[in-house]
Amino acid sequence: MPPSRMRRLLRDETGVAAVLVLLVLVVGIAEPDFLTRSNLTGTAHNACYVGLMAAGMVFALAMREVDLPGGVYALGVTVGAVCICDGWSPWAAAAPVLVLSALLGAGNAIVATYVGLPTFIVTLATAMLFRGIGLALADGRQISGMPQDHAFFRVVGGDAGGLPTAVWVLLATTAALTVLLTRPFRDAGPGGRLQPGRGAVHRASRRADADQGHGAVRVDGRTGRRPDPGLLHLR
Predict the structure, then answer these.
(1) Given Cys at both, which of 21, 43, 71, 96 links 130, Cβ 3.0 to 4.6 Å?
(2) Which SS3 state, helix, strand or coil, does residue 64 take?
(3) How many other CB atoms are there within 10 angstroms of residue 101's CB atom?
């Protein structure tokens, strides 16, 4: 990554990081138990699932769209829990969860692409639908009776190197997506020159520039900033 890009990234993120550190310190001073190792690791563990969804949303945001994956997540975990309660091995139950989630996400993408609706509208509608289906599958009750002593829960839900496994998964996913979004790519023009410091974000930004959808907010896909602060441009 070029030094100028690194400096811009650090400048953009410094404020958010400072606020986060200040918030943790204030809460820790008011409630000393908040800064205990068990509480911090537990909080990090619980935040990983939201973090994984947010990592995937980066691609939609790079294309100036907003994706709401909560419904897919809710239905997927419900189907997995129902399968386990029906006698499936947790390892085997993970397969239909992944397949179903991929199909639901692909369905949202197909509707948004071929019907021409913003992904925010599509995923907002399907999120309520998927949540309703999940609630019906669970009979409106919390699903309990998971085999907590199974190796799946000890490995996936356990710790590794002093941190929850989910934290390591989130860190690995974030690193992989960062490389994917920022890696150089070959220009489609004559000569196919390698464009340094640009990746999926730049390509998605160029595609979004050609999009003629309505109600899109114009932003720079490389910096995440609007060209004209405070103005929404309808195209």
Answers:
(1) 71
(2) coil
(3) 19
In a domain, 184, yes or no: yes
Place of tokens 């409630």: 31
The set of residues, in sequence order, having a beta carbon less than 8 Å from that of 43 and lying 6+ positions away, is: none
Indicate if 204 and 192 belong to the same structural domain. yes
pLDDT (tens, 9 = 90+) of the chain, 235 residues, equals: 555 655 665 566 777 788 888 998 998 898 888 888 888 888 888 888 888 888 888 878 877 888 888 899 999 999 999 999 988 999 999 999 999 999 999 999 899 888 888 889 999 999 999 999 999 998 888 888 888 888 888 888 888 888 888 899 999 998 888 888 777 555 444 554 444 444 555 555 555 555 544 444 444 444 444 444 444 443 3
DSSP H helices in 116-139: 119-137
Are 160 and 140 part of one and the same domain? no
pTM: 0.67
* Pair 73, 58 in one domain: no
Residues 104 and 211 in one domain: no
Q: Is 120 exposed, middle or buried (0-12, 13-18, 19+ CB in 10 A)?
A: middle
Q: Quick one: 112 and 185 in the same domain?
A: no
Residues 201 and 135 in one domain: no
Report the Cα 11 to chain-centroid distance in Å.
23
Residue range(s) defining the domain that contains residue 17: 1-35
Residues 29 and 53 placed together within one structural domain of the fold: no
Check: CB of residue 46 under 8 Å from CB of residue 39.
no
